[in-house]
Amino acid sequence: MARKTYYEKLKDPRWQKKRLEVMKAASFKCQVCGAEDKTLNVHHGYYSRSLEPWEYPDNTLWCLCEECHKETQDCLEFIQRRIGAIHPQLLQQFIESRSLGVIRGFNDFLFAWECDTLCVMDPDCYEQQESK
Ligand SMILES: [Zn+2]
Q: How many angstroms separate the alpha carbon of residue 44 from the centre of ligand 1?
């Protein structure tokens, strides 16, 4: 049997049921702008190759109008691009640490819009930045 494409999976009755539940829980309103008169989508907050579209946790599925869906996708892509530039050691520190300093450093990096070349590629340099 040929593997189903993602588009085909979205026609699966399990996804149709799930998306209806998400929309119903949001009272058929966009959860960003509150629109009731626009086409609504159910947005996946993240993607995993090991999950079918209907298998995601409820708290990662969002009822959004098409416009807010597009903006949300753009925001996620932006954040993922920045996360992609973080040194793997720092990612591990973030996951393992309950230190507010590490979490703040991570947050500062994500939102240091003006600085794309911040030397987070190098953990030592990152620590110098953090201690400023
Ligand atoms: Zn909206």
A: 15
Residue 1 domain flag: no
Dihedral sign computed on CA atoms, order 4, 78, 121, 125: negative
Whole-number Å distance, alpha carbon 131 to ligand 1 midpoint, is 40
In a domain, 122, yes or no: yes
Average pLDDT of the residues in 8-20: 96
DSSP label of 3: P
Determine phi and psi for 127, rounding to 5 degrees: -65, -35
At 62, which helix (H) or strand (E)? strand 61-65
Structural domain of 91: 85-131
Tell me the C-alpha distance between 10 and 17, whole Å.
11
**Residues 30-50: what's their mean pLDDT?**
96
| pLDDT of 2 | 65
- Looking at the fold, whether 69 and 100 belong to one and the same domain comes out as no
